[in-house]
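Problem: given the chain below (160 residues), write out its structure.
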Amino acid sequence: MARPKPTVGAKVKTVAENRRARFEYFIEDVVEAGIALTGTEVKSLRIGQSSIAESFAEVKDGQMWLINATINEFSHGNRFNHEPKRPRKLLLHAREIERMNSAVTRQGMTLIPLSIYFNDRGRVKVELALGRGKKLHDKRETAKERDWQRDKARLLRERG
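Solution.
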């Protein structure tokens, strides 16, 4: 009997969010992944010092890695501090890694981290998505739809 999977989105504290990802990519599939960190990285995340704006994930030797994510050095970390932009191992089942890797190689998709957060058990998790890049006209359509929603909300507020 299979163990039930935790629902993606049981976030307690969001540390970093990639807000441009939903504008730049069509999001196909979202997976929650663990991340292997050192002690000073976790302490730095607890005070919210990180960025995943230009980061991505890739598969090397059957393992998933988070590349180009910045977790700033911990202020009281002394000589045991970590390197801010080091590659970090993402913790996923082998079947999930293989499924995502095949989507990237066959369908030309990209692995994008959407957010880093602490779950209800205090563990650091990464919300990882398979995305297909948008063309310029798709981005214009997204911006137009967002502007219309904003205007519509303003009009409803004024009238009602």
